[in-house]
Design goal:
Layout (H helix, E strand, L loop, with lengths): L1 E4 L26 H14 L3 H8 L7 H7 L7 E2 H4 L3 H6 L6 H10 E5 L3 E4 L3 E2 L15 H14 L5 E3 L3 H4 L8 E9 L5 E3 L4 H15 L6 H10 L3 E4 L4 E5 L4
Parallel strand pairs: 1-3, 1-6, 6-7, 7-10
Antiparallel strand pairs: 2-5, 3-4, 7-8, 9-10
Protein name: Peroxide stress protein YaaA
InterPro entries: YaaA (IPR005583)
Organism: Salinibacterium amurskyense
Length: 249
């Protein structure tokens, strides 16, 4: 089983001072060429601070993000699982993982980056700023990533649990045997309502529980049986989807 996660706009600083971005250390080597094209375009864009600010949709207080993009090739790297911060990754809490849990996460968790496409949780990456809707001149991200990212994910095979936002899912389709997970709550009338505030937190906690259990589910039925035994209310939703039902509190 593979768990597909969205990235986070916020990143942790620092990393291994003795290592920089190395294409050969990233998962999905077939994506090296499209990755290099995006990194080159983003680095070049960072040479014009005002243009980069507009393209990234950031404020004057976030101009450090432009510097991050300017130094992509020389900045220190750290595993993606540790690089990303924010609500989802706080719930995943990589810092407290055991050696076995971290190894399992590195083997089963894939983060879909706008800069690098799909990457493994253990892939060493620098801090950067690029979102699914960033306007990189001459390089529309959806068009650039859709085919190569979809092909890369299709090549994984097996069950893929897709926790990405719909926006990141548009950068590349999950494999044929996939289930899209939605975080929902039951409204007063009993109808399912998608959550926004607790969406990322719930996905992070659910992924952490999957990593802790260390089970490679091959079918949705196996996943459902485990989830409900582990204290989660996971149910079939719309065709091809699963509903993670949580309390809206």
């Amino acid at each position: 089983m593979i768990v597909l996660l969205p990235p986070s706009e916020t990143k942790r600083d620092g990393g291994d001072q003795g290592a920089v971005l190395d294409w050969d250390r990233l998962s999905f080597p077939e994506l090296t060429q499209p990755r290099q094209a995006v990194v080159s375009a983003v680095s070049e864009l960072a040479g014009d601070t005002e243009a980069a600010q507009r393209a990234l949709g950031i404020s004057a207080k976030q101009l450090f993000e432009v510097e991050r993009n300017r130094t992509l090739a020389t900045a220190p790297v750290m595993p993606a699982l540790e690089r990303y911060t924010g609500v989802l990754f706080d719930g995943l809490d990589a810092a407290t993982m055991t050696t076995d849990e971290r190894s399992f996460a590195h083997e089963t968790v894939v983060v879909h980056s706008a800069l690098f496409g799909p990457i493994g949780a253990g892939d060493p990456i620098p801090a950067y700023r690029l979102s699914h809707n960033s306007k990189v001149p001459g390089l529309p991200l959806k068009k650039h990533w859709r085919v190569p990212a979809s092909d890369a994910l299709a090549g994984l095979g097996g069950l893929q649990l897709d926790l990405r936002s719909e926006a990141y899912a548009q950068l590349g389709a999950a494999g044929e045997n996939s289930a899209y997970l939605r975080v929902v709550t039951a409204g007063a009338d009993g109808k399912r309502v998608a959550l926004s505030h607790f969406n990322k937190k719930s996905k992070g906690l659910f992924t952490r529980a999957l990593v802790r259990a260390g089970i490679r589910h091959s079918t949705v039925d196996s996943l459902l049986e485990w989830a409900n035994g582990a204290g989660f209310q996971l149910e079939h939703g719309a065709p091809g989807e699963l509903d993670l039902v949580v309390e809206n509190a």
